[in-house]
Amino acid sequence: MTFTIGGGDLGAVVVVGDSACQVPFWFSLYVEVYVCVLGPWLCVSFITTKVFKRSVHKDLNSFQDVSGYKQVSHDGGVSMMMIMIFEMLQMIRTNFNFHLNAINKVISSSRAYKGFSDVCNEILDILGKMQRFQELHQVLDEMSNREGLVDEKMFATLLRRFVGAHKVDDAIQLFRRRKEFGLEPGSEAFRTLLMWLCRFKHVEEAETLFHNVMKKGFSADIKTWNVILNGWCVLGNAHEAKRVWRDIVASPCKPDVFTYATFIKALTKKGKLGMALRLFRGMLDKGCKPDVVICNCIIDALCFKKRIPEALEIFRDMSERGCEPNVATYNSLIKYMCKIRRMEKVYELVDEMERRNGSCLPNVVTYCCLLKSLKEPGEVHEVLGRMERNGCSMNDDVYNLVLRLYMKWDDEDGVRKTWEEMERSGWGPDRRSYTIMIHEHFEKGRVKDVVRYFEEMVAKGMVPEPRTEKLISSLNIRVKGRTEKQEDVEEERTGL
C-alpha cells in the first residue's frame, strides 16, 4: 500500500493506492502525524496491516460523502483530528517511537487548535513514562515558544513523570519555569509539586523546599501543611509526623478536619491508641467536629484492642455530634464482636443497618463476617437469603468462603451445589477454589481427590500456589499434566 500527500495550507490531496481525494489542511496534518511523527513502529504496525488501510479509507470516504471539503467546519475538523491523534497515541503508549524533528515541526507550525494541548500532553506523558527525558526537554523547549500550549494538566503530568523517575531537581527547576509557559507560580501549583514529591517518598526534600519557600515570604496555609504531614504519615514515620504536627500547632494555621484525620490514622496504625484518643478528645474540646473517617479510625483501633465498650460509646455519640455512621463503622464493630461471639449484639447491629438503609446497608464485608461466625451448614442459607433480600450480589470472595465452610464441615452436598452455582454464575471456580479443595481434601486424607483437583486445575492453565506445589511434591506422586521439566525445576528448588 502506498500513499502520498500534496498541497498547501488551504488543502491537500491524499492518494491511497489508486484512490485520490482532496481534503482540508487539518486532515493532511493528521496523516503527517499519523505516519511521520510516530515513525518506524507505525509504518510496520499500521501501514502494512488492514487496520491502517481500513482507518485511512474510512476517513477518506467520510470526506467524499461531503460535497466539497470547504463545507467541513475547520474547527470541528481540527477537533476530530486531535481526537484521532490522541486516541492513536494512547493505543501505542507501550511501544512508542517518533521523529523528534517532525514533532517539533508540528508544534511550531500548528495553530492553537482545540485539543492540540491534549495531544502534546499525551506525547510528553509517554516520553516521561519511557524516561526519555532528553527528548522530553527538547519538545518542552519547543512548546515554551508557543503561548498557551502548556496548561495546568500538562504541568502536573510533567511533575509526576520527573518525580516518578526521582529527578527531584528537574521537577523543582520545572516549577521555577512556570512563567515561561504563561503560568503563575501560585499556592495550588506549589502544593501539586509537594504532593508528587511526597507521593514518591521524597518527603524530606518536599519539606526542605517548603521551608525554603516560606523563608522567602510564602504564606503557607493549612492545606500545604497537610501535604507535608500526610507525606510523613504515609511513610509510617510517626516521629517526624509528630514534629510536623507541633510545627502546625505553633504556626498561625489551625489544624482542620483533614489534619486531625491524617495524624490520628497514622497514630492508630502505629498502635499509639492513647495518643490518638487524646488528640480525638482535644479535637472535640476545641469545637472541631470529627468526620466519619476519624470516628471509624478510632472505633476500629479500640475494637482491635478489645475495648468494645469504649468503641460502642463513641459509636452512640456519633449521631449526637452530627456525624452519621456508614457501613464501615458498623463493619468494624461487627467484625470484632463476631470474634468474641456476641452474636445477639451483632444481629442487632445488622438489623439497624437495614433500617438505616443508604450508606449503612450491609455489604459483602458484613455478610462475610456473619458467614465466618457460623457453626453449622443449615445457617448458611439464612445469611445468603438475607444477603439476596438486601440486594447484595454474590462474588468470588463469598463463593470461596462458603466453599471453604462446607469443606470444613465435610458437607458434600453443600460443596457440590456451591461448585455448580459458581460455574453457572461465572464467578469460578478459580485458583482459590481449587486451592481450597486440594488442601481441605488433603487434611481429610483423601489423596485421590487431591490429585484429581490438582490435575483439573493444571489442565485449565491455572498456576498452583507455592504451598500447593509443595504439597503435591510431598505426596511423591507423578501427576498428569506436570511435565518432566516442571518436576526437574521442583527438585532443583527443594534441593533433592
From TrEMBL:
<dbReference type="InterPro" id="IPR011990">
    <property type="entry name" value="TPR-like_helical_dom_sf"/>
</dbReference>
<feature type="repeat" description="PPR">
    <location>
        <begin position="256"/>
        <end position="290"/>
    </location>
</feature>
<protein>
    <submittedName>
        <fullName>Putative pentatricopeptide repeat-containing protein</fullName>
    </submittedName>
</protein>
<dbReference type="Pfam" id="PF13041">
    <property type="entry name" value="PPR_2"/>
</dbReference>
<dbReference type="Pfam" id="PF13812">
    <property type="entry name" value="PPR_3"/>
</dbReference>
<dbReference type="Pfam" id="PF01535">
    <property type="entry name" value="PPR"/>
</dbReference>
<feature type="repeat" description="PPR">
    <location>
        <begin position="291"/>
        <end position="325"/>
    </location>
</feature>
<feature type="repeat" description="PPR">
    <location>
        <begin position="430"/>
        <end position="464"/>
    </location>
</feature>
<feature type="repeat" description="PPR">
    <location>
        <begin position="151"/>
        <end position="185"/>
    </location>
</feature>
<feature type="repeat" description="PPR">
    <location>
        <begin position="221"/>
        <end position="255"/>
    </location>
</feature>
<dbReference type="InterPro" id="IPR002885">
    <property type="entry name" value="PPR_rpt"/>
</dbReference>
<feature type="repeat" description="PPR">
    <location>
        <begin position="395"/>
        <end position="429"/>
    </location>
</feature>
<feature type="repeat" description="PPR">
    <location>
        <begin position="326"/>
        <end position="360"/>
    </location>
</feature>
<keyword id="KW-0677">Repeat</keyword>
